[in-house]
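Action item from last week, closing it out:
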Amino acid sequence: MYRSNTFGLILVVATSGLALGGCTGTEAPEAHIGYVEADWIYVASPQAGWIVEQPVHEGMDVEAGDILFRLDTQAQEAALAEANARIAQSGAQARNMSTGAREAEIRALQARLGEARARLTKAEADKTRILPLVERGLEPQARGDTVSAEADMAAAAVAALTQDIAVARQAARPAEREAADALTVSAEAARDSAAYRLSQRTVTAAVPGRVEGVFLKTGEYANPGAPIVALLPVDGLKVRFFVPQAQLPEVSLGQPVTIRADGLPASIEATVSYISSTAEYTPPVIYSKGSRDKLVFLVEARVATSTGLKPGLPIEVVW
């Protein structure tokens, strides 16, 4: 989880602190007072957990994708394993429903059908033999009724077993197969969710930059959203300065400007990235007799972190 914040310091800039150029006989460009500001990225954990690995330290340069910290993963790995097992289970159920009964079950039904057909053959033979005798009065009517009922029952048993075998050879009903397929889809979604939660236990740098702060270390417990590492991107430094209204037409987006600061052996090039559309009085962070009580416009210019500028450093801007 990443959260950006802008860092600035209230400065008192001494008018004698920065050289404005030597006396060469030509008028030096007017310098505009400003300061350096940083756009930090505060890296937090999206989940709660114990920090088990932290391969970075303050002042370390990192590239995009480098691991900043890792949380414990036991619970997430168990959830992923359970989800994979449910996928296997639901898949087996779906395949079972699509293939019908096993061959052994069908063979057992066929054996019972053979027995039923044998009983039917005997019952039909008894019926054929007894009924004429009943008609001639040689056998009682009850005997005729019995053999007729036995023949009908044997025929019904043969028909029922024939239908059972036909049903056993078929797959499950469409609704049952759809339910089994839905269970498989649900299990796969649970697997994807578990895999995503596991991946969030490892937090990497989204952009290249320098580690400026480490707030929690290995062995400490991280809460969701709480910053753990402060990262200064390679393009995270900017200078803020103020331009009087009369000179505003001289400044445009993308324009190169020159930065001067005490302690730097040479001037630094920067690029104007923002020009305010609203005028304001010179803010109290800039104390300059020449700019006091003037309406000015805020201008920002981006500089690389490798220039040696530090957040809060007073600077002068010329162009």
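Closing note: The helical segments are 74-99, 103-135, 141-169, 174-199.
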